[in-house]
Amino acid sequence: MEATKEKIKRLLKEKNAILLAHNYVLPEVQDVADLCGDSLELSIKAAATDAEVIVFCGVHFMAETASILSPEKTVLLPVTEAGCPMADMVTESSLAARKAELPGVPVVTYVNSSAAVKALSDVCCTSANVVKVVNSLEADEVLMTPDRNLAQYAASKTDKKVHLWEGYCPFHNTLSAEAALAVKAKHPGAIFLAHPECPPEVLEVADVVESTSGMLRYVKESSADTFIIGTEVGILYPLSQQNPEKTFIPASLEMACADMKRIRLEDIVACLETFNGEVKVPEEIRVPALSAVEKMIAMV
Ligand code: 13P
Ligand code: SF4
């Protein structure tokens, strides 16, 4: 494994490439990445890098976001089939139909969505900035896609009327308040952190609601020693690496996203050698999608 990691580092240098990885991907991929982060951090880094090539270790919508922000760069997704089931729960046609029913209502779209859906939206958001984005809009009604749970979380933090969309993360959505409370009862004194993709009743019993990188920051600064983690299990690796003296308990082992685990070191080597797996967003979609993503970044 070490030899493969060295090979990746050499290839990245040779090709003037940067490797970005989401906090959920396999540990060995996080180890070799130039930057690990949440969706917001990764989009900002993708926009700012001088590298000519971005290798994105995450899922398809993340590589698309990098391509939207950096059309002059080559964006590679080592396994092009790595997708996000929640992103597939809103399509261009279904969103266009809903917009027609809600004329004048701005659309706030979670970055976990296709470029074509972003192109039909007024502004994007991530789990790290959703409340800020919704509250910064002048309108007093918004339509949020595709995550119903994230939208309900935003609704609990705003006076605006929030129109929901029936999308959800198939992993975060499996966590129930009963299951979370049972884990809490077993570990009295532990702090329960939940991702806003979890159902509202779970967020109600959470001590902290944060994006993945928000959780990493919170734990680092906390004086507590035990944490219950209500998000995809991949985050346990960076949490344990960065805080070896602290204890982390997954709220549920069912929160394991297969798509986030698809990219292996060998796939990264192959894509750097062949440049297969390029993700490029056509200009007629990229330009309106960029407007929605840039509006979000400007609000951070
Ligand atoms: P964040 O890392 O932005 O919290 O996103 C979570 C997620 O589910 C990404 O697919
Ligand atoms: Fe999509 Fe959920 Fe997987 Fe994130 S964890 S990529 S939201 S299915």
Detailed description of the structure:
The structure is a single chain. With 300 residues, this protein is an alpha/beta fold. It has three domains: 2-83 and 260-280, NadA-like (Rossmann fold, 3-Layer(aba) Sandwich); 87-170 and 287-298, NadA-like (Rossmann fold, 3-Layer(aba) Sandwich), CATH 3.40.50.10800; 172-256, Rossmann fold. 42% of the residues lie in helices and 16% in strands. The protein has 14 helices and twelve strands. The strands form three sheets. Strands 2-1-3-4 form a four-stranded parallel β-sheet, with helices on both faces. A four-stranded parallel β-sheet has the order 6-5-7-8. The longest helix has 16 residues, at 283-298. The structure holds 1,3-dihydroxyacetonephosphate and iron/sulfur cluster. 1,3-dihydroxyacetonephosphate (13P) binds at residues 23, 38-40, 84, 112, 126-128, 169, 195, 197, 211-212. 1,3-dihydroxyacetonephosphate (13P) binds next to helix 3.
List the helices and strands and how they pair.
Elements: H1 2-14, E1 17-22, H2 27-32, E2 35-37, H3 39-48, E3 53-57, H4 60-69, E4 74-76, H5 92-101, E5 107-110, H6 115-119, E6 123-125, H7 130-136, E7 141-145, H8 148-155, E8 161-163, H9 177-186, E9 191-194, H10 200-204, E10 208-209, H11 212-221, E11 226-230, H12 236-242, E12 247-250, H13 265-274, H14 283-298
Parallel strand pairs: 1-2, 1-3, 3-4, 5-6, 5-7, 7-8, 9-10, 9-11, 11-12
Helix pairs in contact: 1-13, 3-4, 4-14
The structure holds 1,3-dihydroxyacetonephosphate and iron/sulfur cluster.
EC number: 2.5.1.72
Cofactor: [4Fe-4S] cluster
InterPro entries: NadA (IPR003473), NadA_sf (IPR036094)
